[in-house]
Design a protein that fits this description.
alpha+beta, about 40% helix, 4-stranded antiparallel β-sheet, Immunoglobulin-like, 3-stranded antiparallel β-sheet
Length: about 210
């Protein structure tokens, strides 16, 4: 089949899409497979667009190109179909009025402005919570240490009192033993042996009585 130049692209706006305006170009009757380009008024190409092509029973190609324009200041878009063999091109431009673009929600600018402040508030709240938690943990630790110190002091006092009681019991036992020994010694010291008289009586006999 010899090369052929098909129809002029047909263009229409299909509606808002992804915060922009979706523009669709269609052309048919081209051979071989044509090349599609979309440009803004400054001549700069739109690099991101989708293209679907099909070939009929006669071998001619139909093309559909879909482009999403997000910049409302673009104004217009021109789509061209090029036959690479014959170097022949057909183009069609469309003006995109600004009202066709989705209007930005009024809360978005306020949200973008308040977002850093919100993040700072959340960060401050997190730091405050962490500091309060650390303070509470430190107070609990101090209370635990104080309770442990009191318990150790109580145990020390109990041990000291117990030692004092045991010492006092030993002293009492020793004192009781001493007093018992002293009383026993006093009891033995109070007893005296009786004086025994001689076997001859009180006065021995005189020699004159024997004459």
């Amino acid at each position: 089949m010899s090369s052929g130049v098909g129809s002029v692209p047909q263009v229409h706006i299909s509606g808002p899409e992804e915060d922009g305006v979706q523009v669709v170009y269609t052309a048919s009757g081209w051979f071989p497979e044509p090349q599609v380009q979309c440009r803004d008024p400054r001549g700069e190409q739109f690099l991101k667009f989708s293209k679907v092509q099909a070939q009929d029973t006669e071998g001619l190609f139909s093309v559909e190109a879909t482009l999403v324009v997000r910049d409302s200041s673009v104004g217009s878009v021109t789509c061209s179909i090029l036959n690479p063999t014959l170097s022949q091109e057909k183009a069609m431009a469309i003006v995109i009025p600004e009202p066709f673009f989705p209007r930005a929600s009024p809360w978005k600018p306020a949200f973008l402005v308040s977002l850093p402040l919100l993040l700072l508030l959340l960060l401050g709240a997190a730091c405050y919570t962490q500091r309060e938690h650390s303070t509470q943990m430190r107070e609990l630790q101090e209370q635990g240490d104080l309770g442990q110190a009191k318990e150790e002091d109580r145990q020390t006092k109990e041990e000291a009192l117990k030692g004092t009681g045991e010492l006092q019991a030993i002293l009492d036992q020793r004192k009781a033993a001493y007093l018992a020994a002293w009383r026993k010694a006093q009891l033995y010291a109070g007893k005296e042996e009786p004086v025994r008289e001689g076997v001859w009586g009180d006065t021995p006999p005189s020699p004159s009585s024997q004459m």
